[in-house]
Amino acid sequence: MLNFYTTGQAELEAYVTSRIMKVPTCLPPRRQQNLRTFAPATKRKRPTNQKEKDHKLVTNCLKQRLTWIQTQRQEASDGLADQLIPVPRSLTSDGLKPRTGSKSTAAKQYQDRYSDVIVPHLPSSFVTTNTAVIIDAMFIINTSPLAVHQGFGDYAKFVLERWAAPWYKRSVGSVHFIFDNGTALPDSPKAILQDSRDAAAGGNDVDHDHIEEITTSTTLPRAWRKFLGCRRCKRALCSFISQYCLGNASGVMATPNQCFVTAGALPNQMGNLAVGCIKSATTCFAVRDLESNAEEADYRIWLHASKFDSVLVYSPDTDVYHIGMALEWLNTGDRSVFVQLDMPGSMQHKYMSLTKLAGNIRNDPDLSQVPEDVRVAAVQALFVCSGCDFVSFFAGLGKCSFYKAFFQFATFITGGVEPGLLAENNEDSFFAFVRLVGTTYYQKHKAAFDANGPYALYKQFGSQEKMKQHEAWLNAIRDAVWQRTDTEDDCLPSTTALNLHWKRSQWVLKVWKQAPTSSIVYPRLEDHGWLLREGVVSVQWDTEEHMAAVHHRVATLTKGCHCKFGCNTRRCKCRKANGLCGPGCKCHNCQNMPSATTSSN
Fold first, then answer.
1. Do 176 and 31 fall into the same domain?
2. Which whole number is the average pLDDT over 288-317?
3. How much of the chain, in percent, has pLDDT values that exceed 90?
4. Do residues 235 and 179 lie in contact, with contact meaning Cβ atoms separated by under 8 Å?
5. Bigger pLDDT: 152 or 3?
6. Predicted local distance difference test score (pLDDT) of residue 600
7. Distance (Å, rounded) from C-alpha 513 to C-alpha 423?
8. What are phi and psi of 42, to 5 degrees?
9. Contacts by 324-329 with C-beta closer than 8 Å and gap 24+?
């Protein structure tokens, strides 16, 4: 206590002198101390994130590598660009989750390239009694309830009047509400995407009372976003809205022959069914030709759309119109298909003409060397492999970078000059994907190259077998990019990692092509770049062989013996293992070096 009194008196005098009397002082500030013991306060270190750990590891390895190069008198560039992180950081972030990015920039690329594709209004002759309006209902539930809404019945009535009634007043033939079918595929890569969204929302089991069954009198939750963040509650909401609309849609219809159809969210394991109603009938009925085992509304939308010649699809999800743009039914007959892209509540509407988009791509002069029948499919594959819901984005490379590189060098990437077309589903198509990725990285860092374009650099390795040529070309780009980047996030993935990325893209494309069918055959996940262990789906980022090689490389650069007497005996663990000392050793006067001369390590 005496120490406390003395310290307090000194602090009080210093405060009065410097703060009240304004007398300049040179006394150092007193450090914060524990009042009980007067010991300095404990400083808590900030937790180190994975990016900082990776950066520290790479820096340490490079220092060891440079020291070893100087000791062994090797070329200064030998091995400096070797991968030192086991997983491709350009594809995965902390927690081994796929990198995400903006998909909507693809629409901007199409709008800049084809000015007539996106319009603010639908043509006056488009909406007729033969027109079907198909709505991705997973977006309409994001519309928050109004203050006057008390129960879920009020909210469901609001949804029906907000999204279906205006189209019936304009005399459309049918309105469809399509929901995700959560029971279609038990083991799905969508689980990875849902886990990421749950983590961002604070977990799937958010802190609130779960609502397993909803009725019209059930009180609305106050925290609507928190309610939607729970998958169980969200599923119950979709089921309730489906049943409410089936029972009340006839009340907002304008003519006897108008129809309402819902699919994907019916209760009691009936997610595959599609059920409809019309104003002139008193009971609902099953629509057999619209039954589907589609997991997502994105796919099922196009089964419904394929039954009509005049279709308006509402979905702000960029994946939806990319699924439809390459389907064969779009080119059959006199079809008119629009996709509304604006989010709920937007004051400005954006309608994309899918028919014009497909036609403009087929007539694009930059794709003149690409076979005409695969041009649209090539652009679809471009969108998928550069990042979508189930496929990782590339760090530092958005849709804009990939699209510009593709259209500028389409002849080299997938024009048939080199083996493999981007739109094909075979082993050679992987070569086209490698050329796409390599060209995009080349264009971003083109100041680092002496060659006159990516194709000129590619031809420098023309004497090799095709796989070896592509690997050598990628390695040359990787070495040049490494000199201009700070971390491995911006470097090219390994060839094996790219191959697994391409397989995941192929899984998505195979499912998309089956969208207009009632029975989708989902490819085996283990054959397409995913791992399935005990019912849990995860991404296989690289092969075990390549990851083991990276671990061995890091161990060579960071671990070794600590001998003090020349490493001449079997006491040296390097010699005991019948090996030579390496960059990670801390030995002195080593006689176990790769070189013949005695060196000091």
1. no
2. 92
3. 44
4. no
5. 152
6. 40
7. 12
8. -75, 130
9. 324/354, 324/515, 325/354, 325/357, 325/358, 325/361, 325/376, 325/379, 325/380, 326/358, 326/376, 326/377, 326/379, 326/380, 326/512, 326/513, 327/302, 327/513, 327/515, 327/516, 329/516
Q: How far is CA 386 from CA 221, 382, 537, in A?
A: 39, 6, 21
**Under 8 Å CB-to-CB from 558, ≥6 apart: which residues?**
57, 60, 61, 64, 584
Residue type (1 letter), 121 = H
What pLDDT, in 10s, does the model give residues 153-193? 999 999 999 999 999 999 899 999 999 987 767 778 887 77
Which residues are 538's β-sheet partners?
531
Q: Please provide the DSSP assignment of 196-223 as one string.
A: HHHHHHT-SS-SS---SS--TTSBPPS-
What average pLDDT does this structure show over 42-61?
77
Give the tokens for residue 201.
């929302």
- CA–CA dist 259, 48 (Å, integer): 58
- Express each pLDDT in 393-451 by its tens digit: 999 899 999 999 999 999 999 887 888 888 888 888 999 999 999 999 999 998 888 87
Tokens of 389: 């819901």
Res 278: pLDDT:
92
What is the C-alpha separation between 168 and 249, in angstroms, rounded?
Answer: 10
Q: Would you state the pLDDT for residue 473? A: 93
Long-range pairs for 104-113: beta carbons < 8 A, 24 or more residues apart? 104/316, 104/318, 105/398, 105/399, 105/400, 106/318, 106/322, 106/383, 106/399, 106/403, 107/318, 107/341, 107/350, 107/352, 108/400, 109/399, 109/400, 109/403, 110/352, 110/357, 113/360, 113/364, 113/407
Q: Indicate whether 35 belongs to any domain.
A: yes
In angstroms and rounded to an integer, the radius of gyration of the C-alpha atoms of the chain is 31
Does some domain include residue 292? yes
pLDDT of residue 597: 40
Distances (CA, A) of 450 to 25, 28, 442, 447, 477: 62, 58, 11, 8, 11
Query: CA 365, CA 515: separation in Å to the nearest integer?
Result: 29
* Residues 37 and 138 placed together within one structural domain of the fold: no
- Check whether 595 has a pLDDT greater than 80: no
- 70: CB partners within 8 A, 6+ apart: none
Average confidence score pLDDT of the chain = 85
Distance CA(498)–CA(523), nearest Å, equals 19
* Angstrom distance (rounded) from CA 258 to CA 277: 9
* CB within 8 Å of 527: residues ≥ 6 apart: 503
Which string of DSSP letters, residue by residue, matches 464-512?
Answer: S-HHHHHHHHHHHHHHHHHTT-SSGGGSPPPHHHHHHHHHHHHHHHHHH
Domain extent for 5:
1-41
Q: Which two tokens stand for residue 445?
A: 């860092």
Grade residue 37 by pLDDT with cuts at 50, 70 and 90.
low
Asked whether residue 31 is domain-assigned, the answer is: yes
Domain presence at residue 275: yes
Banded pLDDT at 277 (limits 50, 70, 90): very high
Rounded Cα–Cα distance for residues 185 and 520 (Å): 10
Q: Which pTM was predicted?
A: 0.86
Q: Write the CB contacts of 104 (distance below 8 Å, at least 6 apart in sequence).
A: 316, 318
Does residue 74 register a pLDDT over 70? no
Our count of domains for the chain comes to 2
